[in-house]
Every structure is written in C-alpha cells, then in structure tokens.
Amino acid sequence: MTNHRRSIRICGTGVAVPEQVLTSDEIDRRFGLPAGTVFKRYGVRARHRTVHENSATLAVQACEAALANAGLGWSDIDCLVSASATMDQALPYNAAMILAALGGHAKRIAAFDVGASCLSFLVGLDTLSYLVESGRYRNVMIVSADIATFSLDWSTLGESAIFGDGAAAAVIRKSAPGEASSILASRIETYPEGAEYCHIKAGGSRYHPRRLSSSIDPLSLFHMDGPRLFKAASRELPRFVKGLLDSAELTLDQLRLVVPHQASRLAIDHLAKRLRIEASRTVDILADYGNQVAASLPSALHHAIAGGRMQRGDPIMLIGSGAGLTIGGMVMVY
C-alpha cells in the first residue's frame, strides 16, 4: 500500500447539535430503572435528540461555525463534501440538500457525497486531500451530519442509549510554505465478512416498500451485532495501527493525541487499553454527546482543538471502525 505525504491543513472546524437534550436519567425513568443505571452501563450521560431539525440544517450550522473559525466565507469555498452515514432523503444527495439549505449564500460549486458509514469524515478527508494538494480545489468544506434518532428502537435499551444526533465540519486547504500541517499516512480497510454485523436494511431498492409483503418499519431500524462487530474490529486493530504508524514513520509514543470514533464506552476503553494509550492522550466526548455516527470523529476532533488539547505542529492519529466492516486511520500533523 503506497502512502503519499500530503501538505494539507485543517484551517477551521465547527459543530452543531439539535436543541433538545435527552439525559440518561430520563431514559432510566422511561424504563423504570434506578437512577444512574444507563450512564453506568453505557457511559453516556446525555445526547442531543432531533425533534424539528433535519440533517441539512444541522450541516449548515456546523459549516458556518467552521467558516467563522477559519476566518473565511462561503465565497471562499469551491467544493462542498457531505461525509455522512445517513441520508436526509433518498434523492437528491446530501451535499445538494445542504447547498440548497444555504439559500442566498449558495453558489454554483462542486458538491457531492462521500460515504463510508461512521468513517465517512475520515474517508472524505483522505480522498479530498489529494484533490486539494493537486490544485483541483482550493478550500474544501467537509461536513458530517447524522440523525440517528428516528432509526433507533426506543422500546429497548442498547443502541437507543448510546446514539446521539449532531453535525461537525472542517475546512481544508493546501498548507502554505513554512506550515508544518500535513497528512503523513492514511489507511482504510473493509472486511466484507462483517457486512451484516451493522445495518439499516430499508432506504434503497433491495427492500423497497413496493417489493415487500409486510411493513417496512422493522427494516427501517438500526440493527447491530455488537459482540461480533467488537470481536472482529478488536482482532484487526493492532495490526492495522502498526501498519499505519509504520507508514507514517512514527511510534505511538510520538503522538500528541489519539482521536477515536466515539463508538461506545467499551470500544474507546478497549482501544486505549489495547494500544496502551493513557487517558490524557485520548479524546473522549462520549459521555456528553453519545455516538453521533459519522459526525462523532470530527466532533471529537473539533472539541480537542477548541479545548487547546493540540497545537499546530502536533502529530495526531484519527482512528475508528464502522459498518462495512471498515477500519480506518490517519496520522497527521495538525
């Protein structure tokens, strides 16, 4: 696998969340559980839940926050990439819906989607970095906006206790001479034997309502075989990370921070334990936001930057897994 170092700079990030907050105490009461049960079991204290928002409006809010952070305006953006795990609607694609939601700010620029479930942001960043470095685009906005609320089975615990809704965006450009910001290495692997471990079957032509003799509602819900997914990802992770770091010519000890996809309490803790990374070098926002699907990783990245946990020139690693089964990672200099 060839890895090409790219002179790419994240020049601004932003996030957005729905107005309503759903606490784990409320879920405890809903299921008749003692106070603190859900938080103790799943590690999520609160998550944002969509009522009247849609993913396009959340995406616009996150994009505008990223633009403000970068000191740019929409007139500076020449490519918009939606890197979400879920669709706002079947057609048109998410990026077109986001551009339409801009209203008067919208202009005729390239807009398209990049999808890889929970790793959509990482895959989008990896893919677009080559186009930016080559000069095809100047300033690219990559945004992940996911609403999990309506795909969860709220009659049971489990996934309904873990997921939250939200959006996160980043503006990237080519690094200027003298700027250290760069992508040192990236790696993405998909293991098709895990395709059934995590899915929402409805939404496409395979399980279209016109082909079904029964209600589509059960097929519209998120299903995950947690133990099999966790076992498969855990088995591949050490080898995967070693290959990624070897390509970057760095060791784990040289990384300032590790920014993982906020999959679950078990996944984050296992990652830290398996790689022997202390908590002070791991970004963990799960307790306050839950798993925001594709928006989780860029949200964690944003909060680490905004909280001063990384400075320009610091080497960091983005890492995660998602439905597919896919594992992805990137080592970069912020």
Distance between the termini: 23 Å
Mean pLDDT: 93
Query: What global shape is seen?
Result: globular
Structural class, by secondary structure, is alpha/beta
Radius of gyration based on Cα positions: 19 Å
How much β-strand is present in the residues?
15-25%
Number of strand segments:
13
Helix residue percentage? 25-40%
CATH classification class of the largest domain: Alpha Beta
CATH architectural grouping of the largest domain: 3-Layer(aba) Sandwich
Task: Give the strand line-up of the largest sheet.
Answer: 1-7-6-4-5
Helical segment count: 10
Low-confidence stretches: none
The count of domains is: 2
InterPro entries: ACP_syn_III_C (IPR013747), ACP_syn_III_N (IPR013751), Thiolase-like (IPR016039)
GO biological process, one term: secondary metabolite biosynthetic process
Keywords: Acyltransferase, Transferase
Domain Beta-ketoacyl-[acyl-carrier-protein] synthase III C-terminal: 245-332
Task: Describe what this molecule looks like in 3D.
Residues 112-191 form the Beta-ketoacyl-[acyl-carrier-protein] synthase III N-terminal domain. Keywords: Acyltransferase, Transferase. This is 3-oxoacyl-[acyl-carrier-protein] synthase-3. The protein has 334 residues and is of the alpha/beta class. The protein has helices spanning 24-30, 37-42, 55-70, 94-101, 120-133, 159-162, 226-248, 265-275, 286-289, 296-306; strands spanning 8-16, 20-23, 46-49, 79-82, 110-113, 139-146, 166-174, 182-190, 198-199, 223-224, 257-260, 315-322, 326-333. The strands form four sheets. Strands 1-7-6-4-5 form a five-stranded mixed beta sheet, sandwiched between helices. A four-stranded mixed beta sheet has the order 8-13-12-11, sandwiched between helices. Strands 2-3 form a two-stranded antiparallel ribbon. Helix 4 (94-101) links the parallel strand 4 and strand 5. Helix 3 (55-70) crosses helix 4 (94-101) and helix 7 (226-248) packs across helix 8. It is globular, with a radius of gyration of 19 Å. The mean pLDDT is 93.
